[in-house]
What we know:
Shape: flat
Radius of gyration: 21 Å
Strand content: 5-15%
Largest sheet: 5 strands, mixed
Distance between the termini: 27 Å
Number of helices: 13
Structural class: alpha/beta
Amino acid sequence: MKTLIISLTLILSISSFGQRSNIDCSKTINKVPYFARQNSSPSKDSILLDLEIIKTCGNLDSIDVDILNGPMVAQITIQLTNDKKKVTYKAIIDSFNEFKKTTTYLTNREIFIVSKTLEKKIVTIEEFENDRLLLQKIGMPNSELDNFKKFIEANPSQKLTYKEAFSLYTTSKENKTSGIPSKIEFSKLTEIETAIKAGKENGKKILLYFSCYGCINARKIEDRILIDDKIKTLIVQNFNYFIAYTDDNSEDEITKTTMGKKFIKMQTDNFKTNYQPYFCIIDDSGKVLSEIGYTNNKEEFIEFLNKGLK
Length: 310
């Protein structure tokens, strides 16, 4: 499933928006957004205005705005540029309306709605089983739900919301190191050439993981696949492994842009993909030996790793 790349990192949460401005869409909609104008360094306020214009002229509701905020705007802009089309407010709105016809949109919308509901809902053990389906919809497996339920039973929520209760539950898990598989720590990618050099030095293939902080499926694959002992052993013993966050806001001194934008271009140019999570195994010439996107099947991921070792 394709995910939405976050690169407009100056954008604040959409909840910080005030009331809609007096925007004349007939005069504005065909203009180029501030963030897409050449020879311009848009301010935070101008980028927020861009989203307010898209929100108003596109007649978007609050859920659509949450889906579009940042990641989708950036991805649409990249696609329009690659297609040699003019980036305007109308072009962005039209592209988003096409996305709204897909099952991916419906899935993302449902997840956002459920997440917002649970963020504010008070946890009670009496209502937990009724809420289980909602928690499953946002990606919690049954085994995790069972443990979460035990935590709630052992620690009365005292009118905590699900967001607050789950934060405490996560903290308690981190404090219990025994029996809890630790997540594999990927090195941060800077350049593909540097990664290849590291692989040559120790005779290992290179595993690249393109992710983003705002990607729901990336968190799922990390929590369900990358904690598996067999998978961790295969990776640690056979690969040099690196991660690239496509929404990394830190500055790249070489390109004078964000690392996230650099990684988006790197992924698109070298691997002809623009979705996350994306894993690929390359040899010392940069040739792709194996690749995979999102999966919830451990055996499928193991097959991907073994293919890269042949």
